Amino acid sequence: MTSTALEAFLAANPDIIACELTSVRGSSPREQGTFMLVALGAIFGTIGGGALEYMVIDHARRLIAEGRAEEAMDVPLGPEIGQCCGGRVMVSLRFADAAIRREVVARTMAEDALTPQVYVFGAGHVGRVLAQILSLLPVRMEVIDTRQEELDLLAPGIAHRRVAMPEAVVRAAPRGSAFVIMTHDHALDFLIANEALSRLDSPYVGMVGSKTKRAKFASWFLEQGGDRAALDRLVLPVGAQGLGDKRPSVIAALAAAEIMVQIGQREALDGQVPIPEKQGVVSGL
C-alpha cells in the first residue's frame, strides 16, 4: 500500500468503513493493527483474505447500506467459518470520518518512509521482469539505465530513470538501499558494484552473471584496493539457488526472493518493528 494509492481511494469513495484487527489471539492471517478500508465497490488493503476477510467485507458493506457508523466482531478462526488458523480475532469496524481518514493517510505515509528502497540497474530482459515482481512487493523500486529505448519497454507504472552515470545513484541512495546490477555492459556492472560494496548499510548487492564473471570481478575489485570482506557480500550470480535455470523470468523470481530475504534479515538485526504492531487506525483514535 502506498499513500498515493490510498489518497486516490479516499477521494473516489465518500462512504468507507475502516476495518482493523484490534486483538489477535493465537494464529491469524495478519497481526494486530492491520487495517483494511471497504467501500461499496472497492477495497483498499487486506486483513489476510479467506473467510474472515469475506465476513468483514460483508459486515462493512451492510453498515454502509444501513447507515450505521460502527460494529465490533469477535471471530474464531476455526471450522465454524471454514478457516483453520485456530486463533481468534477482534475486528473493529467504523465509518471513516475525516479524523480516521487523516490517521490512515498519516500511518501509510509513515510506512512508506520506512519501506526499503531497491535499485535495479539495467532494463534488459531480466531487469524488466524483476521490476514487475518487485512492484508487487513492499519495497520502493526504481529501474536505472543509460538507454531510454530499454526503459520505454518497462511495464506501465514502473518507476525508472535514465542516468548517464548509474554509479552516482548508488552514492546518493537512501540508507539501507538494496542494489541489483544487470546492465548490458560488464564494465559498467563492475563500477556500480564497486560503489555498492562500499555501502556497508546495504542489505543486498547482487549482480547477474556467471562464476567466470564473479572471478573476473573479484580479481579487478581486489586490484582496485577493494576489501575481501566486502567482496564476500556480493551475490553473483543472482537468483542461482542451485537451480542453474537461465530463463529471465526464473532468474528474476529467484532474485526477488533473495532480495526480500536479505532485507528481512537486516531489518531483524536492526530491530525494526512493523508499524501495525505499534499503533492502530481505528482503536488508536
Notes on the structure:
The protein has 285 residues and is of the alpha/beta class. It has two domains: 3-113, no CATH class; 115-270, NAD(P)-binding Rossmann-like Domain (Rossmann fold, 3-Layer(aba) Sandwich), CATH 3.40.50.720. It has ten helices and eleven strands. It has helices at residues 3-12, 50-66, 98-114, 125-134, 148-151, 166-172, 186-197, 211-223, 228-231, 248-270; strands at residues 17-25, 35-38, 43-45, 70-76, 88-95, 117-121, 140-145, 160-162, 178-181, 205-207, 234-235. The strands form two sheets. It has a six-stranded parallel β-sheet with strand order 8-7-6-9-10-11, with helices on both faces. The protein has a five-stranded antiparallel β-sheet with strand order 3-2-1-5-4. Strand 2 and strand 3 (43-45) form a beta hairpin.
